[in-house]
Every structure is written in C-alpha cells, then in structure tokens.
Write a structure and sequence with these properties.
disordered N terminus, 127 residues, alpha+beta, two-stranded antiparallel sheet, 4-stranded mixed β-sheet, Alpha-Beta Plaits
C-alpha cells in the first residue's frame, strides 16, 4: 500500500501565515480509540480483533498496540471496538459511555468524523 492510501488528511488549518495539514494514519486513530476506551469505567481490557491483518500480525510476532480496534472508512470512520467488561457492569450504559468518550476524544484530536462506533462485548472479567 502506498503512503497516500494509508494516510488521509483529516484536519486542515488555513491561516493567513501558512497552510498546515495534519496527517494521521489508521494506526494513530486506532491508538486514540484504544486510549479512550481504557479510560471508561467498567472496561477491563480490549478484546481480540479477529481481522485478517490482526491475525497475520500475531502470527508474525509483531506487537499489536491497537488490539481490539478495527477501522474502515466510508464517508466517515466506521470503528469496531472489542472489549472485555468488568463483572457487574451495566453493559449498555458502558457501551454508550465508550461511544461518547471515543467520539469526544477523536473530535478533540483533530476533528475526525465518525460514521459509526460499534461496541462488541467479547467477555466479562470476574475478579
């Protein structure tokens, strides 16, 4: 994949002095999502992303810092998040909190437009 296919211009700052563009690749967006998810009460950990690229990375032994997040772009980012919640957590409320927090963090980072934020609960962690 070429550099242009991996990077999309997500935010542009037009000023009288100069024009600046901030490029963020999918891994950068996924890292923001991961950090935001783990800040939400009731989330124990990110789950396993079972996409072909994630499986290939695991087989090759490369570290997957964005485990549990899958991104696609279609007139806005479609984000699939895989989580493990803590036992006793109100799952629908926690999922809504994750969606809201991720959306806020992405907008704060560089006004990233999201189309969907899907939460997939893969398990419950019992202490």
């Amino acid at each position: 994949m070429s550099d242009n296919e991996n990077n999309r211009i997500l935010f542009t700052d037009d000023s009288a002095e100069q024009r600046q563009s901030v490029k963020m690749d999918e891994e950068g967006i996924a890292q923001i999502v991961c950090d935001a998810v783990l800040e939400v009460n009731g989330i124990h950990a990110l789950g396993a992303n079972m996409s072909a690229s994630a499986i290939a990375k695991n087989l090759l032994g490369s570290e997957n810092k964005t485990r549990g997040v899958r991104l696609a772009f279609d007139d806005g980012w479609i984000i699939d998040i895989y989580v493990i919640v803590l036992y006793g957590t109100n799952i629908p409320e926690t999922a809504w909190n994750v969606q809201r927090h991720v959306s806020e963090r992405l907008k704060a980072a560089s006004d990233i437009k999201t189309k969907e934020i899907n939460i997939n609960v893969q398990g419950v962690y019992c202490v």
